[in-house]
Amino acid sequence: MGRTKNSSAETTRPRIREAALRLFARHGYAAVSMRQIAKEVGVQAGTLYLYTPDKQTLLFDLMQAHMQELLDAHAALPPCPGVVARLEQFTRFHIRHHAARADAVFVSYMELRNLEPANFAAIEAMRRTYEDRLEAILRDGLTQGSLHVPDTKLATLALIAMLTGVNTWYREGGRLSLATVEGIYWDMVRRAVGAG
């Protein structure tokens, strides 16, 4: 099987990444071969190595791109006055952003165990950066007396796990709209941290 007609680096590279992400999410990183990815894209297996040195690098690149997109999108949010407003913004952003990227979220959480140590450390550092942004909101609220949590780190991890969990059950076109889910989850988050 040769290169598909009109194939180029500009179109092949994203197609490889999309195919790998989809296959990793459906079957798991360990169960997917470079040959399967190549077949999905419609190129010879050897062609993949023009775009990535190996499957580990491909996994890392997918996870790193997901985390960088998350950090950039969050950083681009408009400033919010007040701790409670910032927390609501974070809650709604997290749900909305992740709901639109189900495969990337699944791979980023479930395939951490398959990263080599240096790659794992890099992704964990990016995750901590994102977690630190939520924890900063909680600390500010604790300092100001507008939020009440016994431990900001533990509350951060619990809230992110709860918000990310939406991806395990939410389906567009289901009983609840995403906006309704955001509102319900915001109410739960608000109560969990003792916001007025």
Characterization of the model:
The chain has 196 residues and is mainly alpha-helical. The protein has two domains: 1-52, Arc Repressor Mutant, subunit A; 55-192, Tetracycline Repressor, domain 2 (Orthogonal Bundle), CATH 1.10.357.10. Helices cover 70% and strands 0% of the residues. It contains ten helices and no strands. The radius of gyration is 19 Å and the shape is elongated.
What are the main properties of this structure?
single chain; 196 residues; mainly alpha; Arc Repressor Mutant, subunit A; Tetracycline Repressor, domain 2; 2 domains
Basic shape: elongated
In CATH terms, what is the fold-level topology of the largest domain? Tetracycline Repressor, domain 2
| Rg (C-alpha, Å) | 19 Å
Oligomerization status of the protein chains: single chain
The number of E-state strands comes to: 0
Arithmetic mean pLDDT: 93
Low-confidence stretches: 1-6
For the biggest sheet, the summary is: none
Give the class-level CATH name of the largest domain.
Mainly Alpha
Class by SSE composition: mainly alpha
Give me the number of helical elements: 10
Tell me which CATH architecture of the largest domain applies here: Orthogonal Bundle
Q: Ends: how far apart?
A: 63 Å
